[in-house]
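Task card 7
Instruction: Convert sequence to structure tokens.
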Amino acid sequence: MRAAVAIGRRGVPRVADLLRWLAATMPRALRPPSRAARARLLVLGLVVAALGALYLLWFRDSSFVQVQRVTVSGLTGTDASRQRAALIAAATRMTTLHVDEGALRRALGAGATIEALRVSADFPHGLHIEVVEKAPVAVLVYGRERVAAGVGGILLPAVRPIPRWLPVIDVGALPVHGRLGQGRASRLVAAAAAAPAPLRPRIERLRELPVKGLVAYIRSGPEVILGPPVELGFKWTAAAAILADPTSRGASYIDVRLPDRPVAGGLVIAPPPGAQTAIPAQPAATTAAPGAAGSTTAPAGPGAAGSTPSTASGTPAGQSTGPPPPQTVSPSGTTQATPAPSGGAPPQTGP
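Output:
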């Protein structure tokens, strides 16, 4: 056991041994190179610098890598042909090793509704330009004038024809500049942009009301009350969940002003099949019986034909107050009612 420990200690270098080794090797490492080594390093550095200067100052802009084939994709709208020609003309003045995206954007013009340009070079003479346009999220309507608007309130006049499914926003006047200000129309465009893409075609119109705030009207569906223009993404998520719930079908409005507690209202709950609706009893008119002062008779309500009317004197309905008076046949053949004597049985009449 002691032998194994001793062997292990000899195998692990001690700190003192490491320090002695570094002290012995550092002077040799820090010694300046020889004259021949310095000459080789100098020549190598000059060659690298010359190649870099040759590349930057001549080769990357030379005709050896001049752009000759340009393909453009992603352009739509009425101005697409002009923009494509401008991009091709600007790209042919470049090389595949020196592509200036800023020059390509400037060639499109200041009013171009472009989100981004994705450029890929095909060495040595090919170039592909993919244009990512700003997608419209709503349409501003002023009288008969219509213009599409994108995210951030940017106007997209080149979008023609305007998609019919875009939400409509009525404005008092179309802006002169290419972007909306910080007013009502800008808030409504932000609400349209925050809506989920699958739900946006179902939005017919957007308005801002004094009490409800931002309101979206769904085609053949309820109105969505968004309230103030904050947390619009969370509000639309809550509204989409309620719209997808079959139990909320038939609601007239969805209130998501508090996105963590959405409310669907205006539901018409149909009675279950076979349920009968109770008809309330109509109050009966009281009539005074002739010859009976202070007593009134109430006729029975509908559906109680043949029942005995109740009296206001406290006698229950259907119970007689006494035996009916007997009838006698007079010699003349007429029937007369004989009044019953008080306190006794009716008299017996014989032939």
